[in-house]
Amino acid sequence: MSRLLIIGCGGVAGVAIAKCCQRSDVFTEICIASRTKSKCDAVKEKLQGTTSTVITTAQVNADSKEELVALINSYKPQAVLNLALPYQDLTIMDACLETKVDYIDTANYEPEDTGEPVWRKEYEKRCKEKGFTAYFDYSYQWAYDKKFKDAGITALLGTGFDPGVTSVFTAYAKKHYFDEIHYVDILDCNGGDHGYPFATNFNPEINLREVSANGSYWENGHWVETKPMEIKREFDFAQVGKKDMYLLHHEEIESLAKNYPEIKRIRFFMTFGQSYLTHMNCLENVGMLSTEPVMYEGKEIVPIQFLKALLPDPASLGPRTVGKTNIGCIFTGIKDGKEKSIYIYNVCDHQECYKEVGSQAVSYTTGVPAMIGASLVLQGIWKKPGVYNVEEFDPDPYMDALNKYGLPWVVDENPALVE
Ligand SMILES: NC(=O)c1ccc[n+]([C@@H]2O[C@H](COP(=O)([O-])OP(=O)(O)OC[C@H]3O[C@@H](n4cnc5c(N)ncnc54)[C@H](OP(=O)(O)O)[C@@H]3O)[C@@H](O)[C@H]2O)c1
Description:
This protein is α/β, with parallel strands linked by helices and 419 residues long. It has a domain of 194 residues: 2-Layer Sandwich (Dihydrodipicolinate Reductase, domain 2), CATH 3.30.360.10. The strands form three sheets. Strands 7, 8, 9, 10, 11, 12, 15, 16 and 18 form a nine-stranded mixed β-sheet that branches. A seven-stranded parallel β-sheet has the order 3-2-1-4-5-6-17, with helices on both faces. Helix 3 crosses helix 4 and helix 14 packs across helix 15. The model has no long low-confidence stretch (mean pLDDT 95).
């Protein structure tokens, strides 16, 4: 019998929960706990009767360690799957430590208030020392490694698609195709169309912060930082076609650079249409992407949070989104003294996802790997005391599960390369 506590009940959680319910043999009981309990109850209502997984729900403020500890102590799960926002990573890890329960997430820590003086000072020091200015980095969560080891519990970081599947693709390429990997290009293409002039495919605050920030890539042991959208390439994606893609900073670059010091360069590209970029630039220019509170008619509001309230809810895009995503990695390295390249990728169809679980492919491609990571921890297959990124475990059971549970992958042994 196993019991999983899932925190958060948004787009990604909706998929992960539906997928857990397809695997009642592993997930015998789940509790969905989030800020807004009615959303958890609605998901339970939809799924119970279709599954033998026993579903309960709870209200929790995941910014409060005390509330989390009380919930964990009353529900007594074996593990907590954090599908709330990156802002809650540390309080949830603290609660897991106190209760000695395994921890799993899909995104690394980022503070909600980037103007907070203590955090800001630390951040500015890190920017100088490490050479990239993204608000998120792994240092906060990696710092829990000893505490998790001492407590005898596992933290599995970043089991979404990117990070997550892209990192497992890297471990798989190294295990089965290369003696040494030298170059990695991670390509994230969303060829879907939702019909709105502007909407984000996942949480707008997190998405817009990421995309409007400086880009960076890892080269020869250090970070090279670029202006937002400075590096553009065109790529012909299988089953999608030619798309413009732009270099972004992305969190798996940091962990892959640490775990594979042999890699000379790691870049991350994401596709964007011109309309998306024009809207984003305009919103940024007028200050709507700011996280600094402003006073409006006697009330403090945070511009990006206000914008979130105006934009379509990502969870509502499912029925209207058509087209496919194609996400994967091109690896170049050495095998038996010879240079070679391979491309491992998955293609996912928005409407197929909607038919299966009622969500578009962006939530689907994150929710399925979240379920897979949680299943491997719960079954003890990926379990050792400490804090780990997904590429630090054996990739084979994860790759098998991707094929089985909705994200089949392809290996192209003669790929086009990115200039
Ligand atoms: N690795 C990847 O490939 C990848 C890709 C996409 C997303 N992600 C990550 O996946 C996570 C979920 O994304 P999403 O698109 O599902 O976001 P979302 O739709 O905004 O859902 C977030 C959920 O967390 C809940 N929540 C927020 N603050 C909370 C708090 N203080 N206490 C309790 N619950 C709280 C929200 O509650 P309310 O319903 O009350 O707002 C909502 O249910 C994020 O961390 C995101 O960065 C990872």
